[in-house]
Amino acid sequence: GKFGERVAEMCNRYCKVKHIQYEWGRAFDLYELEQQLERKCYEAVLICHNETSSGITQDAPAIAEMCNRYQTPFILDGITSIGGLPVDLEAWNVEAAAMGAQKCTAGPSGIAAIAFNSRFYERCKAIKEQGDINPLFYLDFVSAFKKGDDDQTPWTPAINLAMGWAAALNVLKEEGLVNRWNRCSELAQGVRNLFLDLGFELLADVSQRSATVTAILYPSGIDDNWRADLKEKYQTQVIGAQDDFKGKMFRVGSMGETTKEEMIEGCKRMLDCFREHGHNTPDVDVAGYF
After folding, report:
1. Does the pLDDT value for residue 132 go beyond 80?
2. Residues 57 and 50: beta-carbon distance below 8 Å
3. For residues 50 and 197, what is the distance between their CA atoms, to the nearest angstrom?
């Protein structure tokens, strides 16, 4: 998907990358990944765990097991999975992981968190001491780690964003992490079943469909004019598609603090808007899907 491609693009600016690409929405070929790991020539494997551009969640536990077996560090882009899907960084022996506040934890945009283990830190420290480090200033893990002992940051932090995220995390704490995972999963399952029963197609492989976003292909004769009317006439917003799928697909989010009642009402409005655009869908008990 788009964000996996973006991860590879960012890494290409700082190191030599073997980018294993698939069609959007396809699950990784684990056999191909293992063949690459057998070469024992890579410093790390990095994946976009939950790809919101195509509605797919990659099999991180299986990839982590392979990385551990071949002694290759595993790095996780958990921007849209941590807080919304089961993620066990310790059990998977993840070397480093990143998450964004604005996604599954429903915090403010503009702040993120990075978790890393001692091996990752020591490696960063050694590279810095050797003078082999890529150009950087603010994103200095060694400086950040040292300041962290004093509950500080090396540079002036965005206090308002941190306070906003803390408030969102308190909401998550009250709900319970496992309860949030379950709610996201149930909402996504309801959306998938509803639209599949109505004859729509989903982009992602059936075995790896995401619990935080569902990518749904438009039926014939429908495009993003439907989405515009949904916003203006029905006061409801869904996410559009990107790149080659723009105008061919829409995405329904089920992460964060979305409630069952909100999702039911949103789906009803979506179906009404499809009917208005000439795509006849039968009357169904939307609430029954949730």
Report:
1. no
2. yes
3. 25
Token pair 């515009």: residue? 228
* Domains of the chain, first to last: 2-173 (3.40.640.10), 177-289 (3.90.1150.10)
Q: Which two tokens stand for residue 272?
A: 């009404």
- Which of 12-18's residues contact partners 24+ apart within 8 Å by CB, and which partners? 14/134, 15/43, 15/134, 18/42
Q: What is the pLDDT of residue 169?
A: 98
Say how far apart CA 81 and CA 100 lie, in whole Å: 9
Taken in order 23, 29, 32, 36, the sign of the CA dihedral is positive
CA distance 226 to 229: 5
Look up the pTM and report it.
0.92
pLDDT at 130: 87
Say how far residue 216 (Cα) sits from the centre of its chain.
16
Q: Letter for the amino acid at 240?
A: G
